[in-house]
């Protein structure tokens, strides 16, 4: 949050119970809950991004999916979601293709692959829109944006 707001807050003087309650919100709370489960503070079920490993039928085993997972000491195991109806499954696969192409664009430093990634995103209607989005990102965030050739 400090990166977003430019403000830092010293929480060292707060009651530990209050700190735990604060940490229970947002991603920090999820991370703390996951760590507690992994180190043996008791098993729990959480919604996590994990390798699919059969959780969603017709998705690749190594595809990262956001599903309920069982967390216990030293293990995270996705819970089977089973078959997803064809319509939603198609959308899930389309977003997964976007994610994989985005990763490829970043690792290759490829402008063409980045435009291709945006083109397959379900909320982007065509190549021209995808190119305009990418060019806008580069113009607005050039110093932070990866070099694309």
Keywords:
three-stranded antiparallel beta sheet; alpha+beta; extended; 149 residues; 49% helix; 3 strands; disordered N terminus
Describe this structure in words.
The protein has 149 residues and is an alpha+beta fold. The chain has two domains: 15-78, no CATH class; 86-141, no CATH class. It has six helices and three strands; from the N terminus they run αααβββααα. It has helices at residues 2-5, 16-23, 26-38, 86-108, 111-120, 127-141; strands at residues 44-51, 64-72, 75-78. A three-stranded antiparallel beta sheet has the order 1-2-3, with helices on one face. Residues 1-5 have low confidence and may be disordered.
Total strands: 3
Q: Give the neighbour order of strands across the main sheet.
A: 1-2-3
- Structural class, from helix and strand content? alpha+beta
Helix content: 40-55%
Residue stretches low in confidence (pLDDT < 50, at least 5 long) are 1-5
Q: What is the CA–CA distance across the termini?
A: 32 Å
Largest sheet: 3 strands, antiparallel
Count of folded domains: 2
């Amino acid at each position: 949050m400090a990166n977003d707001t430019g403000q830092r807050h010293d929480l060292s003087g707060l009651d530990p119970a209050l700190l735990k309650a604060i940490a229970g919100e947002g991603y920090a709370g999820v991370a703390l809950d996951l760590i507690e489960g992994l180190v043996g503070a008791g098993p729990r079920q959480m919604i996590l991004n994990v390798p699919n490993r059969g959780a969603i039928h017709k998705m690749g085993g190594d595809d990262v999916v956001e599903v309920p997972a069982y967390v216990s000491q030293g293990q995270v195991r996705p819970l089977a979601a089973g078959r997803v109806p064809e319509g939603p499954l198609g959308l899930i696969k389309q977003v997964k293709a976007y994610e994989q192409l985005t990763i490829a664009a970043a690792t290759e430093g490829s402008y063409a692959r980045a435009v291709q990634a945006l083109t397959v995103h379900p909320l982007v209607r065509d190549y021209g829109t995808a190119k305009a989005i990418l060019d806008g990102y580069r113009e607005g965030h050039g110093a932070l944006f990866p070099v694309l050739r």
